[in-house]
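Just wondering, can you check both lines?
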Amino acid sequence: VQLQASGGGLVQPGGSLRLSCVASGLILRINTMAWYRQAPGKQRELVATITSGLNTTYTDSVKGRFTITRDNAKNTVSLQMNSLKPEDTAAYYCNANIRGRGWAPGTTLDYWGQGTLVTVSS
């Protein structure tokens, strides 16, 4: 099982970016999916989560600007980021809690994508 993230880049303040992440491998079920970020010199922080039932949560600093979505059929999670600010600059990581095919009942593991860099600067 692996996660592959994409979509980062350089954007001006006020601009938008869309991050995507796809899970692949012998997957039976994906539970909660999430995006984290880590700015230089800071700890990794949780940005947004989405359950398999499409319930979402957001950290206060991104509410109203970021939207997390997922496609359960395609094993993907996305993060639409609007009205970007310089303080949103960070490496963004996708995360998923996954049960693999053939695993013992109740067994799940957390997987991480490789990180994609978002830079908000004029």
The mean pLDDT is 96.
